[in-house]
Amino acid sequence: MAFALTAINMTAAPLLSETYAKGDRKQMQQVCTTTGRAGFLFAAVVFAVFALLGRPLLGLFGEEFRDAYPALMLLAGGQLIKAFCGQSGTLTTMTGHQKVLTKVLSLASVLNVALCVLLIPPLGITGAALATSVSGVAWNVVMVVIIWRRFGIQTFAWAPPFMKTKDKWQIQEQGAGEKRREFDE
To answer: What is the maximal distance between C-alpha atoms in the chain?
Structure first.
């Protein structure tokens, strides 16, 4: 699942960078929507395969691996939700706002470690899967909100009614006719 999502992100990255450089917010939203939906639909298919055939697939590695089915479903569910969040990390990086992403990822890493310390002793591999999924979903959702508030772009595969694209894009003149794109906060 992660391989295909990475491929989609790599395809979207130059498109997002180009639309940002041109100041084409409408096209940027279109790239986010199209690639977000493609990634989510792929993740949904993989999730369904794991939900239906996960135990037998794990059994191919040995009978004892079937016990990891709950962990597999937690990880796959986390990936599905992260895929629904779309191009949040890629958009942030391609528009020069990687410092915000770095801060959010750092906090998510601390959350992951804390949850692992709390959940692995009582739950084992399932606790590790839960900690990883929760921290991964957390940083993705936080980034979706940050992008929506700062850029007026929503990255969910399908936008909830309260989160329609905002008209916040501004182009401001700077210096000798050089343009810089800024977003209201």
So the answer is: 69
Residue 85 near residue 140 (C-beta atoms within 8 A): yes
Kindly report the average pLDDT of the chain as a whole number: 87
Residues 67, 129 contacting (CB under 8 angstroms): no
**Vertex 73: Cα angle to 124 and 59 (nearest 5):** 80
Q: What is the DSSP letter of 153?
A: -
Rounded distance between C-alpha atoms, residue 128 and residue 94, angstroms: 31
Q: 10 Å Cβ neighbour count for 97?
A: 18
Radius of gyration of the chain (CA): 19
What the block records as the tokens of 48 is: 């369904």
For 61-118, the DSSP string reads T-GGGGGGHHHHHHHHHHHHHHHHT-SHHHHHHHTT-HHHHHHHHHHHHHHHHHHHHH
* Confidence (pTM): 0.83
H/E stretch holding 136 reads helix 125-151
Q: Which residues contact 33 (CB under 8 A, 6 or more apart)?
A: 86, 157
Query: Is it the case that residue 184 has pLDDT exceeding 60?
Result: no
Structural contact between residues 70 and 58, judged by C-beta atoms closer than 8 angstroms: no
